[in-house]
């Protein structure tokens, strides 16, 4: 079983990112209205920040570098981390998933350093095998490309059709579709109930803590020697 991170494993980060991007924009004199800033960030939501700023300022590499540095400075602050939350039942649920014989991993566009810090802070490291960050992949291999999901499945020794990706954005869903992997949408991030249904999510749950209900309701598939995750 594979998870996106922001808006899924942790909540609160989605809104917390907007002030971080704002600080980066201001640092290089890039002025937009709050509505324009939000729309721009959401358009490239799954992109790692360095690739986002390289794209935004493609004619000015130095400006892209300074914006990236300002973003990182604003990201690794107490204010950002204080905005993060994990569900009180998350640790127990992950343990129960593992007790079912499931192997767990994370596929996220977030910074690997941030993933590591948050996972360690909440004592979740023991639950996850591969933790893949979009920062470690070229832009063409980041979501909505299926590449990272396929890499995670290879690390777990599982066929994509025998896995489940749990995410909160349309790019998460598209990556799963392109990997031929079932998808469960959670509504604690950027997808609405209507949006998730219209995009064809296989399951929709209010939050990751309800994931066991998906497993209990999922039909039994044809026996397959490949492990399930």
Could you describe the 3D structure shown?
- The protein is of the alpha/beta class and 229 residues long.
- It folds into two domains: 2-11 and 85-217, Rossmann fold (3-Layer(aba) Sandwich); 13-82, DNA polymerase, domain 1 (Orthogonal Bundle).
- Helix content is 46%, strand content 10%.
- The protein has eleven helices and six strands.
- Strand 2, helix 7 (112-121) and strand 3 form a beta-alpha-beta unit.
- The chain is globular.
- The chain starts with a strand and ends in a 12-residue tail after the last helix.
How many DSSP helices?
11
Class by alpha and beta content: alpha/beta
- CATH superfamily grouping of the largest domain: HAD superfamily/HAD-like
Strands ordered across the widest β-sheet: 3-2-1-4-5-6
- DSSP strand tally: 6
Order of helices and strands: EHHHHHHEHEHEHEHEH
- The proportion of strand residues reads 5-15%
CATH architecture of the largest domain: 3-Layer(aba) Sandwich
- Tally of domains: 2
CATH topology of the largest domain: Rossmann fold
Q: What gross morphology would you assign?
A: globular
The helix content is 40-55%
Q: Distance between the terminal alpha carbons, to the nearest Å? A: 4 Å
Mean of all residue-level pLDDT scores: 92
Are there runs of 5+ residues with pLDDT below 50, and where? 220-228
Radius of gyration: 18 Å
> Strand count, sense and closure of the main sheet?
6 strands, parallel
- CATH class designation of the largest domain: Alpha Beta
């Amino acid at each position: 079983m594979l998870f996106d991170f922001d808006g899924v494993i942790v909540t609160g980060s989605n809104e917390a990112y907007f002030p971080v991007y704002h600080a980066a924009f201001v640092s290089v004199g890039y002025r937009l209205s709050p509505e324009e800033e939000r729309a721009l960030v959401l358009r490239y939501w799954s992109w790692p920040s360095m690739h986002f700023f390289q794209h935004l300022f493609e004619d000015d590499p130095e400006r892209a570098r300074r914006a990236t540095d300002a973003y990182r400075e604003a990201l690794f602050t107490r204010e950002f981390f204080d905005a993060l939350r994990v569900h009180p039942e998350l640790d127990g649920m992950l343990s129960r998933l593992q007790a079912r014989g499931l192997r767990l991993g994370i596929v996220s566009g977030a910074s690997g350093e941030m993933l590591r810090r948050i996972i360690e802070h909440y004592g979740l490291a023991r639950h996850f095998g591969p933790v893949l960050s979009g920062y470690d992949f070229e832009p063409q291999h980041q979501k909505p490309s299926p590449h990272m999901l396929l890499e995670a499945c290879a690390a777990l020794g599982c066929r994509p059709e025998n896995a489940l990706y749990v995410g909160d954005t349309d790019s998460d869903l598209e990556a799963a579709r392109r990997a031929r992997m079932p998808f469960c949408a959670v509504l604690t991030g950027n997808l609405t109930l209507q949006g998730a249904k219209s995009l064809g999510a296989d399951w929709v749950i209010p939050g990751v803590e309800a994931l066991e209900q998906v497993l209990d309701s999922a039909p039994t598939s044809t026996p397959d020697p490949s492990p399930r995750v």
